[in-house]
Each structure stands twice: as C-alpha cells, then as structure tokens.
C-alpha cells in the first residue's frame, strides 16, 4: 500500500507540473527593443487598439545603453506602441514608435490583428528584420512620433543607419515610415491615408530598434490535457500491477 500511495503522489505531482507549465508558458509573437542611446532611456510599451492604449503597459522601466527588453504581443491588439523618454544635454526628449498593418475594407481603414498577422507572415522560429526607432539627439525636436506600416517595411526592409534624412515625414531609407512632430492619429474614413501627423523635415538619428518574432508554438492546453491523462492512466496501470503482485505474493 505504501508503494501504491507513492505512485499516486508522483502521478499527481507530474500532472500538476504539466498543468502549471501550460499556464506559465504564453504562446504567440514576441517583441524586443534594443536601446541604442548612450544615456539610456525610460521605456513604456503598450498593446493598443486603433491607436488607443488599453489596460496596463506591457513593459515599463529604465533601459540602459545596449540593453534589450522583450515581451509578448497580446492576442487582442492591432497596433503596438513604444514610448522612449531620454535625457539630452539640455532637456528631456519623448519619442513614440508605433507599428500597424492597415488595410482598406468596405469604405474605411481597418487594422490587422497583430497576433494573427505575425503568425501568418513569419514562419515559426523566425524574427522580423530590425525596425529602427529614431529621434533628434540635438534636442531641437523633443517630440518625434513615428508610425510604421509593417507590411511595407517587411516587404522592403533596409539596413539600419545611424542617421536619416527625412523630408515631409518620409525617408527613402525607411519604407513604410511616417514621421512627425505631433502624436499619430488614426483616421479610418480618410481614403488617402490611414495615419496623419505634422510631417517632420530634418535629420534624425537611430535611438534604438524593435524586432518581432514568432517562436515555435508550445503545446496547447488540449495537448497538455492529453499528456496529463496519459500520465494518470499510466499511474492507474502501475497501481493495478502492484496490486496483482501483492496478491500473488500473499
């Protein structure tokens, strides 16, 4: 009986471990941000819906030079926003960086669900090309706002540069980017463009980069349930064998 009790305890422990592993291992696309500013910055990342923040930040904290922070892209968001506060020699800059995949549908712009779009666009176990985030290191323009049409950038990614020349909010070395000095506005009813801002003209510098990934999927909860069931059945089989041996010995 003591051995039977030990076997049942082991089976229960294994099943509990399997279930907790299923809950503790989120699945889906990932994001990471690499800080390129020498002085570092205070970074806040949001999952957003139609350019509006929803709930608590996905990440918030200080990021030092050459450090990388990462997290998961929520399954409910259709755009992603990163805000980087950083100190200049004379003032504090605040740059925002947004990515989205807009498409025209039924007379208005809509945004693709990022979770589904990344899964469909990136093979499992792969990462997107790096997307540079930009700002004005001279401090003349303290607030730079960027939105990137992900589909356009991934169709024509460019090698990252330390310096970019922007005219009227666009740069040939940054396909899919719209860069301005006022917050990005999403206007679904505007047939000419889904996003607008006050266009920036001048020189900007890379202050970081963002990359998205689509890791190989973990087993689903259903698969974990099957594993737990197999473990339980194996435990029952072991108990049955031990009982038969005990009877034979008696």
Structural commentary:
A hairpin with a 4-residue loop joins strand 6 and strand 7. This protein has four helices and 17 strands. The longest helix has 29 residues, at 221-249. The protein has helices at 2-24, 114-121, 150-155, 221-249, and strands at 30-35, 41-49, 52-53, 59-63, 68-72, 79-87, 92-100, 102-105, 108-111, 126-127, 131-135, 145-149, 163-166, 177-180, 185-186, 195-196, 202-214. By secondary structure, it is an alpha+beta fold.
- Tell me the strand percentage band: 35-45%
Q: Give the helix tally.
A: 4
Q: Give the low-pLDDT segments.
A: 5-11, 13-25, 220-224
Give the helices and strands as they follow along the chain. HEEEEEEEEEHEEEHEEEEEH
Write the layout of secondary structure elements.
Layout lengths: L1 H23 L5 E6 L5 E9 L2 E2 L5 E5 L4 E5 L6 E9 L4 E9 L1 E4 L2 E4 L2 H8 L4 E2 L3 E5 L9 E5 H6 L7 E4 L10 E4 L4 E2 L8 E2 L5 E13 L6 H29 L1
Q: In brief, what are we looking at here?
A:
By secondary structure, the protein is of the alpha+beta class.
Could you name the key traits of this structure?
six-stranded antiparallel beta sheet; alpha+beta; 4 helices
């Amino acid at each position: 009986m003591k051995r039977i009790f030990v076997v049942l305890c082991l089976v229960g422990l294994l099943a509990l471990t399997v279930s907790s592993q299923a809950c503790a291992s989120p699945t889906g696309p990932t994001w990471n941000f690499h800080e390129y500013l020498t002085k570092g910055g205070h970074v806040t990342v949001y999952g957003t819906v139609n350019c509006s923040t929803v709930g608590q930040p996905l990440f918030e904290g200080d990021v030092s030079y050459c450090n990388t922070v990462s997290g998961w892209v929520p399954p409910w968001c259709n755009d992603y926003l990163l805000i980087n506060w950083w100190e200049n020699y004379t003032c504090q800059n605040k740059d925002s960086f947004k990515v989205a995949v807009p498409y025209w549908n039924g007379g208005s712009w809509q945004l693709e669900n990022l979770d589904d779009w990344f899964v469909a666009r990136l093979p499992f176990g792969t990462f997107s090309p790096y997307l540079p985030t930009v700002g004005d290191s001279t401090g003349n323009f303290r607030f730079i706002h960027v939105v990137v049409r992900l589909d356009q950038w991934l169709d024509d990614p460019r090698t990252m540069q330390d310096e970019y020349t922007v005219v009227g909010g666009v740069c040939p070395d940054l396909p899919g980017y719209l860069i301005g000095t006022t917050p990005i506005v999403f206007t679904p009813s505007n047939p000419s463009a889904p996003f607008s801002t006050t266009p920036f003209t001048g020189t900007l510098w890379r202050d970081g980069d963002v990359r998205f990934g689509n890791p190989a999927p973990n087993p689903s909860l259903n698969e974990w349930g099957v594993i737990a069931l197999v473990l339980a059945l194996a435990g029952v089989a072991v108990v049955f064998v031990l009982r038969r041996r005990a009877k034979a010995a008696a």
